[in-house]
Amino acid sequence: MTTRRRFNRLLASAFVTAPFGGSLAAQSPRSGGELTVAFDGASIVKFVLDPHNSLFAPHNRVFRSIYDSLVVLRADQTVGPWLARSWEISPDRRHYVFDLREDVLFHDGSRFDAAALKFNFDRVIDPNVATYARGELGPVVATEALAPHRLGVTLAEPFEPLLRNLSSTKLGIVSPAAIVKYGEGIGQNPVGTGPFRFTGLAAGAEIRLERNPDYRWAPSTSTLSGPAWLDRLTFKNVPEHSTRVAALQSGQVQVADLVPSQHLATIRSSPDLRLVQQELLNTNYALFVNPTRAPWDDPDLRRALRLAIDVDAIVRIVYLGSLARAWSPLSPSMFASAEQDLAGSWKPDPKQAADIFESKGWRRGADGVREKAGRKLTLGFVDAQGNREQRLDVVQLVRRQLAKIGVSLTIESQSGPLLVQRQLAGDYDISGGAQFADDPDVLRRVFAPESRNRLSVVQVEDDQLADLLRKAAREDEPEARKALYLRAQRRIVDEVYAIPIYVLLYNLALSSSAQGIVIDAHGFPHFHEAWLSG
């Protein structure tokens, strides 16, 4: 059966699966209590709790507790019902009709229906409003409320990623009444339909939620259909790794995320702590050399840079064997990842790197830094997220390795808005980043010029690559689609548009009292089924 024919069937209550992960305890859940999570918000100074306007992963880990999605991504990366009970797709794949649940309320008491969903879709496709979520809807051009709980969606052309993308936290469904009430302040006054409702925040410090007593519409993957067990859920921004772990060990919090490698052995050996982890579906963290900026517009020099970097050594030193080095732009578990195809496709060779620079006329100066025509061979690495996931530790080791062949790398810390301005202007030499996603179409949003969003760290202008990614977005046959993405990833690596570094396993360290917490298929935590023992 083709993918088109499979998806053209109505999806209803028959689609019920086991929950992602599983409960951590054999005890019976009990109601009550407050769970406190210390999460790595890195350099957050202001929480933006509007799912349509934040690509920052720490925000999105909070979103799932506040907002629901139209569909749910199962563990096998197929799609099941959530706020949409079922859907139909036209033979030309340009028209979707979603039948919605009729019992769903937003936290402010307003009703979720076709008009509310239309409001959300129209908001996302408005280029003046939802910049970061726009790519998730691809060529969606119009919506129509066909009945009180039936929405029609029209696309300019077929777009195979749509259903997967609708499961994303970036398309969490927001109360239209709240958007009208708060306007641009919705990011500090979030209102969704999720298992927890917002009660307050301290800017950059903590987010406070409480149980939504009306919740009765959990996704088909959940074992709990009604309200959450917890009374309250609090997220504390604790960007320093050791402080998060210390807060967990002292009992100040019951959960700490992104535990660094040097603390994992302690967590695993403690009788009072547990560790759960799962690969995050995303583009693997990579370094991006700006190919539009001289001298890095020369692909030979980009290849020389890569030859000078020993990724295996860096990942081993920084992550102590807890993470795998990456070969592909896409994380291994994502559909169409080229991780296996690209494994071993290059290896470090500092001597060859030095020879390439020499052949291009870049000679070592008195200070050891290469220069040509009076210009130093320098790389300015721009960053606005601090040492989240120990990324600056990675860059420090890259700097040392490049220095050995005469390339000087400097780290330039920027505020988020200034970094965006510089990236949009192409005013940087090298940057780093990853972008969580549900579908390999994320490559189009990163590398195709017309699709790049404001947070893109890439300035690639490659018609051949862009054409592959556009064709893949329209293709509905899985094997043909996979082949296109494999070719695209090979080109990204061959042209050194990206140097993949590591595969992220998102982790949570839990106290013995924290039960029922799972990590979903995206690699984000779910607290709907969480409860406190003892």
TrEMBL record:
Keyword Disulfide bond on entry: no
Gene3D superfamilies reported for this sequence: Dipeptide-binding Protein, Domain 1 (3.90.76.10), Dipeptide-binding Protein, Domain 3 (3.10.105.10), Periplasmic binding protein-like II (3.40.190.10)
Annotated ranges, domain Solute-binding protein family: 79-441
Iron found in the keyword field: no
Localization: Periplasm
GO biological process: peptide transport
Main localization, broad class: periplasm
Signal peptide: 1-25
GO cellular component: ATP-binding cassette (ABC) transporter complex; outer membrane-bounded periplasmic space
Keywords of the record: Signal, Transport
One Gene Ontology MF term: peptide transmembrane transporter activity
Family recorded in the similarity comment: Belongs to the bacterial solute-binding protein 5 family.
Protein name, entry field: ABC transporter substrate-binding protein
Organismal lineage: Bacteria, Pseudomonadati, Pseudomonadota, Alphaproteobacteria, Hyphomicrobiales
